[in-house]
Design goal:
Length: 424
C-alpha cells in the first residue's frame, strides 16, 4: 500500500466533517478583518437609514427596479451612463439573506467583524451539510472524507465567504444541499424509519424553498434532484412506471420552485438590459448563446483552477476557441473515467454538477458561482483518484498512465495549491 493509499484509508476511518469545517473556517478567517466592501456599504446604509425594516421591507437586493423615472434619475445624477436602457433592471428577491444582514447592521453597526463571523459560521454549516451528503452518496468512507476536505478548502469559496454581500450564495447552497440530502433519505432510506422518511419528504421541498428565499442561486439544487431521479431512484416494474415514478418524486420540489418563481415574478424581480445578469426565461436565446462559452469557463474554473473572470477580457473569437479546447479536454478526461462512470452514483455526481452549473451561466463567469459545481466536482475528483489508484495496481498502458497523471494533478491542485491560495 502506497503512502497516499494509507493516508486516504486513515481519512476514511475518521468523521472528517467537523475537522473539514474547522479547516475551511480557519482558511477564511482573515476575511474577518476586511470590513465592508463595495455593495456592503449600500446594504449598511439602507439598513441604517430604515430603507430596509423588517418584517415588511426586507429585501436589500432590489438594486434597480426597472422604473423609468428611477433610471432617468440615475442618469441625471451621473451614477448611470446616458446609454442605459430606460427599463434596465437588476432586482433579486433574497429576503432571508437580507434579514441576516439586518441583524448585523442593526445590532452591530460598528463591528463588521461580527457579520464576517456569521458568514464563517454559515460556511462551516455548509461544509457539514456537504459532508453528510457525501457520506450517503459515495460508496467508500475515504471517498466521502476526501471529497469533503477538498470542498472545504476549495479556493473558489474564498471570495463569497469573505464578501458579506455574497452571503446569499452560502445560504442558498447550504439549504440546497440540505434539500438534496433529505430527498435522498426519503427515496433511499438505507435503514431510516418510516417517520424519518416522512420527515425527510417534507424537509426536502421546504429546505429548497428556504434556499430560494435566501437567493435564486439555490435553483442549482434542482440539477442534483433531477440527476437523483434519473440515476438513483429505485426502479419500478415497467419502463412507464419508472418514468412516472421519477417525475412524481420531483413534484414536491418543483412545486416549491414554482411557488417561489410565481412570487418572484409577481413582485417584479428579475434582470433586463445587461449581459452581466441574463434572464434565462425572458432572454432564452441569448442565454444559450452565452452559455456556449460560460459553461466551459465555469467547468474549467472548477476542474482545472482557471480563473473564470480572465475570460471576460478576451475577444469573443478567443473565448469560443478556448471553450472548444476545454470541451476537448473534459471529453478526454471523461473518456478515461468511463470505468467509474458505469456506476450510477458517479453518473449522479457528474450530471448533477453539469445541470447545477447551467443556471449559473445567467451571470458572467466568476469563481464565486462554483458552490454547486464544486459539490459534484470534488466527488468526481475523489472518484478519479480512486480509479487512478486501482489502475496503478492493474496496468501500465500509456492511456492509463496519462489518466493517472491527470487524476493526481487534480488532487495536487485541489488538495495542495487551493488551500495555499484560499486566504488571498
Amino acid at each position: 500500500m502506497s503512502q497516499l493509499e494509507a493516508l486516504l484509508c486513515w481519512l476514511g476511518k475518521r468523521r472528517i466533517g467537523w475537522a473539514a469545517a474547522l479547516i475551511g473556517m480557519l482558511l477564511a478567517l482573515p476575511s474577518v478583518f476586511t470590513g465592508l466592501q463595495t455593495e456592503d456599504h449600500y446594504h449598511y446604509r439602507a439598513i441604517r437609514d430604515g430603507v430596509v425594516d423588517p418584517p415588511w421591507r426586507i429585501n436589500l437586493f432590489n438594486y434597480i427596479s426597472g422604473n423609468v423615472a428611477g433610471i432617468y434619475g440615475l442618469k441625471d445624477f451621473r451614477t448611470g451612463p446616458w446609454l442605459t436602457l430606460k427599463d434596465y433592471k437588476v432586482s433579486f428577491w433574497r429576503p432571508l439573506t437580507s434579514f441576516t444582514h439586518w441583524i448585523d447592521y442593526h445590532y452591530f453597526p460598528s463591528a463588521p467583524w461580527v457579520a464576517h463571523v456569521q458568514s464563517l459560521l454559515w460556511y462551516g454549516a455548509l461544509i457539514l451539510a456537504a459532508a453528510a451528503l457525501y457520506r450517503r452518496l459515495l460508496s467508500a468512507p475515504w471517498l466521502a472524507a476526501l471529497a469533503t476536505l477538498l470542498y472545504a478548502i476549495d479556493d473558489a469559496h474564498a471570495h463569497p465567504v469573505g464578501w458579506l454581500a455574497n452571503r446569499n450564495a452560502i445560504l442558498a447552497t447550504l439549504f440546497g444541499v440540505t434539500a438534496i440530502w433529505a430527498h435522498d433519505v426519503w427515496r433511499r432510506p438505507s435503514g431510516a424509519s418510516r417517520g424519518a422518511r416522512t420527515a425527510a419528504a417534507i424537509v426536502a421541498p421546504l429546505s429548497l424553498g428556504v434556499g430560494l428565499l435566501c437567493g435564486e442561486f439555490a435553483v442549482g439544487a434542482l440539477g442534483y434532484l433531477v440527476a437523483h431521479a434519473l440515476f438513483l431512484e429505485p426502479h419500478g416494474n415497467t419502463r412507464l412506471t419508472n418514468i412516472a415514478k421519477r417525475a412524481a418524486v420531483l413534484m414536491p420540489s418543483l412545486a416549491a420552485f414554482g411557488l417561489w418563481f410565481y412570487f418572484y415574478r409577481k413582485f417584479g424581480h428579475g434582470t433586463y438590459g445587461t449581459d452581466f445578469h441574463l434572464d434565462p426565461l425572458a432572454d432564452t436565446g441569448r442565454f444559450f448563446v452565452q452559455a456556449l462559452w460560460r459553461l466551459p469557463a465555469l467547468i474549467a474554473g472548477q476542474l482545472f483552477g482557471i480563473d473564470c473572470e480572465a475570460w471576460w477580457r478576451l475577444p469573443a473569437s478567443v473565448v469560443y476557441a478556448m471553450a472548444g479546447v476545454v470541451c476537448v479536454f473534459v471529453a478526454a478526461f471523461l473518456w478515461w473515467l468511463r470505468p467509474t462512470l458505469r456506476d450510477s452514483q458517479a453518473r449522479f455526481w457528474l450530471v448533477g454538477a453539469l445541470m447545477a452549473t447551467l443556471p449559473a451561466c445567467a451571470a458572467m463567469p466568476q469563481d464565486r458561482l462554483l458552490f454547486f459545481s464544486g459539490l459534484g466536482g470534488m466527488a468526481i475528483v475523489a472518484l478519479a483518484v480512486r480509479q487512478a489508484i486501482e489502475q496503478t495496481r492493474e496496468s501500465a498502458t500509456p492511456r492509463h498512465i496519462l489518466g493517472r497523471l491527470v487524476a493526481f494533478a487534480l488532487l495536487l491542485m485541489h488538495g495542495v495549491v487551493a488551500p495555499m491560495t484560499f486566504p488571498q
